[in-house]
Amino acid sequence: MTMTIHVDIVSAEAEIFSGLAEVVYAPAVQGEVGVMPRHTPFLSPLKPGEVRVHLGPNQEESFYISGGMLEVQPHLVTVLADTALRAKDIDEAAALEAKQRAEKMLADRNAEIDYSRAHAELAEAMAQLQALDRLRKIKQVR
């Protein structure tokens, strides 16, 4: 029997996922982390990106998060996200539009804009598009 760890992914609006997994991958600020059962406890801030929950052989769930915190305990992983969506629920057209809008704002050197906000919007849009791209690749392999 394979060892599992309980995973909770929660956003400000709702609980997105709760269940058992073999491995969880998350976009920590210092780099992607992989968490398996009996992992050493730690806390880490998360950057916008994809959280992958490996449920078993050929079973994986993907989620987009806009940032948040990761709490790891030996038998529990909690992702507290500002915003979280299942990858399949991401609106690709809206993500592409947000990416183009942020790139346009950053390219216009004469405009008075909040560069940190534009960079954050661009990072979020890119993370959403990458999560969609990964989901498509997984579906093609199956």
Structure summarized in a few sentences:
The protein is an alpha+beta fold and 142 residues long. The protein has two helices and ten strands, in the order E-E-E-E-E-E-E-E-E-E-H-H.
Please give a structural write-up:
The chain is of the alpha+beta class. It has 2 domains: 5-87, F0F1 ATP synthase delta/epsilon subunit, N-terminal (ATP Synthase, domain 1, Sandwich), CATH 2.60.15.10; 90-141, Single alpha-helices involved in coiled-coils or other helix-helix interfaces (Up-down Bundle). Helix content is 30%, strand content 42%. It has 2 helices and 10 strands, in the order E-E-E-E-E-E-E-E-E-E-H-H. The strands form 2 sheets. It has a 5-stranded mixed beta sheet with strand order 2-1-9-8-5, with no helix packed on it. The protein has a 5-stranded antiparallel beta sheet with strand order 4-3-6-7-10. It is elongated, with a radius of gyration of 16 Å. The model has no long low-confidence stretch (mean pLDDT 84).
Task: Give the secondary structure arrangement, pairings included.
Layout: E1 5-10, E2 15-21, E3 23-28, E4 31-35, E5 42-46, E6 49-56, E7 59-65, E8 68-73, E9 76-81, E10 84-86, H1 92-107, H2 115-141
Parallel strand pairs: 1-9
Antiparallel strand pairs: 1-2, 3-4, 3-6, 5-8, 6-7, 7-10, 8-9
Helix pairs in contact: 1-2
List the defining traits of the structure above.
alpha+beta; 10 strands; elongated; 2 helices; 142 residues; five-stranded mixed β-sheet
